[in-house]
Amino acid sequence: MHEYSIVQALLNQCEDIAKEHNATKIEKIVCKIGIMSGIEIHLFEIAFNTFKEGTICSEAELIINRQDLKLKCEGCDREFETKEIISICDSCGDILNTNRWRRYLFNEFGDDLMGESVYILEMLKLQQRLNDNTNGEGWERGITKNGKIIDWNRCIYLEVAELIDSYPWKHWKRYRLNPDYENIKIEIVDIWHFVWRQSFEEVLLT
Fold it and tell me: How many angstroms separate the CA atoms of 30 and 181, rounded?
């Protein structure tokens, strides 16, 4: 699950910051997670409580603030925040499209982007940052900062296997279960992350 790799990158960052300030313990971590991040909050919390053991954050309290989406309707010039991705302005009824609406994503990159490009560029930047934090700079050469060989294809194969296991496909088993759609969505996101990383490696090396 990509929440695990994000949490691992967070813990690594906390370790680095603590070393810079000669700290021996971290008591509280405050995170802001946007609704377009694709992060499942409960999985993020599980990953944090799992991986914090034995680290400088072992006794740290995790506080998560959910960041609402900030929008501006160019039909009525209304600026507002919403807790979900919407397609119609509830003030004037204008329809969301690349010509009439502008999404303002106030993040650390400071970008003010329009249209569908907001999704693609945001994913690219976040994926690159996640790659650098998780695997170390220079991971494009196929080696992590710890000297381990990266095999994105194997990662994708295994995630696909986990995706398949979300379906009750075993004909010899005597059970009647519905597909685990929530886990299916998670596995698809994981596969997407690995596909992006493979693409980054191929593009940056050519």
Answer: 30
Q: How far apart are the first and last CA of the chain?
A: 29
Q: What is the dihedral of CA 184, 64, 34, 197, to 10 degrees?
A: -50
Strand partners, 88: 95
d(CA 156, CA 173): 26
Q: Which of 101, 102, 105 is nearest to 93 (CA)?
A: 101
Pick the CATH number of 1-67 from 2.120.10.80, 3.30.2320.50, 3.30.460.10, 3.90.1720.10: 3.30.2320.50
What is the bridge-based pairing of β-strands 69-73 and 101-104? antiparallel
Q: Select the more confidently predicted residue: 146 or 199.
A: 146
Q: Are 31 and 10 in contact (CB under 8 A)?
A: yes
Confidence band of 59 (pLDDT split at 50, 70, 90): very high
Q: What is the largest CA-CA distance in the chain?
A: 60
Domain ranges in the chain are: 1-67
Please tell me what DSSP assigns to residue 67. Answer: E
Residue 62: φ, ψ to 5°: -100, 120
pLDDT tens per residue across span 99-137:
333 343 333 334 444 444 455 656 666 777 777 788 887
Q: Is residue 112 classed as helix, strand or coil in its secondary structure?
A: coil
